[in-house]
Amino acid sequence: MSTASLHLEAVGRTWRALRHKLTSRRTGRDCAHVHRAWRRFGARPPAVLLEGWRYCVDECLERALHHAIERARSFSRPAATPHRIPLGLLLLSRQQLSADQLRTALQAQQAAGRGRIGEWLQSLGFVSEQQITAALARQWSCPVLRSNNSLTPPRLIPQIPVTLLEGFAMFPVNYVEATATLHMAFCEGIDHSVLYAIEQMTGCHTRPCMAPPTLIRNHLRALSGRGEREAIFECFSDNAEFSRIVCSYCVRLSSPEVRIASCGSYIWVRILRRSHPPQDLLLRLSNSRLSAFPVQSAAAAI
To answer: In angstroms, rounded to a whole number, what is the distance separating the alpha carbons of residues 175 and 160?
Structure first.
């Protein structure tokens, strides 16, 4: 056998291995219509990228969206992360609170049957807002944002739905474009599921920090509102109905890509657009509500 024949045979084996690898991944989930158009080297039909795979809008996208939404539902509402030291004991160990003061606040909380212990400690005048924030930061092992000096203008920060900002009591405070790092400030507690969802939707790296509730409340109050780029849907009995809605948005907006993530009590769908800001759709899950941050209230929800 000649050298040329051996070379051609090696190239053929390499090409067959590559083709098998490309076509065998996630068997049954890739769109056969897009692949047929690609094999003919003709113009591709309108297709939308979802989870790394292209689906034709006419036949396959709605079915793929249905499966993706079902998977997102299965990962929703993670269990709360327990802390090693309760907030009251942490303040007590730092000598910022006495045992009698902690006992009084616990009794008031139990009698009222509502509120967080930090809120009661602050309302009774035993500790300050800054002390509560610092203790929460110690619980979550993260830094504290103490001023507005390093805030990035909102127009330079990746888009995040206002509904999620209010529901998780958080606010984007700084964005480093060179490293695509987004710093998110919380005032009640850090939810890593929403940080992961933000990373999936924006392609940024997220870094959490704690901030005083007054600071976050003022920023949330100054927001211009949800606007046309954010739509909220109540839970549907059938995922297929919401899949059809998402598919219709993709067609109307000529979207090149759609992203889906679980985010607390919501399924967050982001429909990307060419040369325009993305469109966000939020599906609220049944019997689930985010504990809405009291933007208009003077009491700090700690």
So the answer is: 13
Please give the structure tokens belonging to residue 282: 């939020």
User: Inter-axis angle of helices 129-140 and 213-221, to 10 degrees?
Assistant: 100
Residue 291 neighbours by CB under 8 Å, 6+ apart: 167, 188, 301
Model-wide pTM > 0.90: no
CA-nearest of 81, 31, 21, 263 to 164 is 263
Encode pLDDT of 111-147 as tens digits: 999 988 999 999 999 999 999 999 999 989 899 987 7
Structure tokens at 289: 């509500």
- Whether the CA torsion 46, 50, 55, 61 is positive or negative: it is negative
pLDDT band at 28 (very low <50, low <70, confident <90, very high): very low
The residue among 264, 260, 300 whose CA lies nearest residue 284 is: 264
| ∠ CA 297-300-302, rounded to 5° | 140
Taking the C-alpha atoms of residue 216 and residue 252, their distance in angstroms, rounded to an integer, is 36
Given strand 205-210, what is the order of strands in its sheet?
170-176, 181-186, 205-210
The DSSP element (H or E) to which 100 belongs, if any, is helix 99-112
| Cα dihedral 292→294→296→300 (10° resolution) | -160
Q: Domain 81-302 is in which class?
A: alpha beta
Asked whether the beta carbons of 162 and 216 are under 8 A apart, the reply is no
Tens-digit pLDDT profile for residues 271-287: 999 989 999 999 998 75
